[in-house]
Design brief:
By secondary structure, the chain is α+β, with helices and mostly antiparallel strands. The protein contains eight helices and five strands.
């Protein structure tokens, strides 16, 4: 199965790895582990993700914030959810992009040192009861209507841009909006 891994901004010294799961049956258990700090990752609703780039941009901003001691939230992983959202309200951002009990398709995002990757992925795989699928299938799980509503993307904008570009530009400019 294909994951997606990329080096983040060199200033951070960190990498980002994405893993996609479908038919997940234990989202409430995963969320409990996240809240308790027993899983070092971010878990987002796959329905709101248009492309790996969207997640990587948010992860990069979160990692830079952590490196500069400028986190808005308590951890680099909640920071990713905060940056994915257009809201400046932390609770709303976490509720909007974080997983709920009924979410069955989830995107797991790790921010890690290069040598931590395998151990972190193993712990994630042990914790998720669902089918691991290739990250190349991410768009199959995107709810375009929900993405457009969440990011307030109008039809006019999509005539000169694609959905991922529209989303990424909003994430990139969040501080200025």
């Amino acid at each position: 199965m294909d994951d997606y891994s990329i080096e983040l901004d060199q200033e951070t010294g960190q990498h980002c790895t994405l893993r996609l799961f479908t038919d997940v049956t234990n989202t409430s258990e995963i969320r409990e582990k996240l809240v308790a700090g027993n899983l070092r990752c971010c878990v987002a609703k796959a329905s709101l993700m248009t492309d790996a780039l969207q997640a990587v941009i948010a992860a990069n901003k979160a990692a830079l914030g952590a490196k500069r001691n400028r986190l808005v939230t308590r951890s680099v992983y909640t920071e990713v959810l905060f940056y994915l959202s257009m809201s400046k309200n932390i609770s709303r951002s976490l509720a909007e992009f974080g997983i709920g009990d009924n979410d069955r398709n989830i995107l797991v995002l790790l921010i890690h040192e290069p040598d931590e990757r395998e151990a972190l992925l193993e712990k994630i795989s042990e914790s998720v009861k669902g089918e691991r699928v290739s990250i190349s299938r991410l768009r199959e799980f995107t709810d375009v209507g929900l993405v457009r509503k969440t990011y307030k993307i109008e039809e006019d904008e999509l005539r000169c841009s694609n959905l991922t570009d529209a989303v990424v530009s909003r994430i990139s400019c969040k501080e200025f909006m």
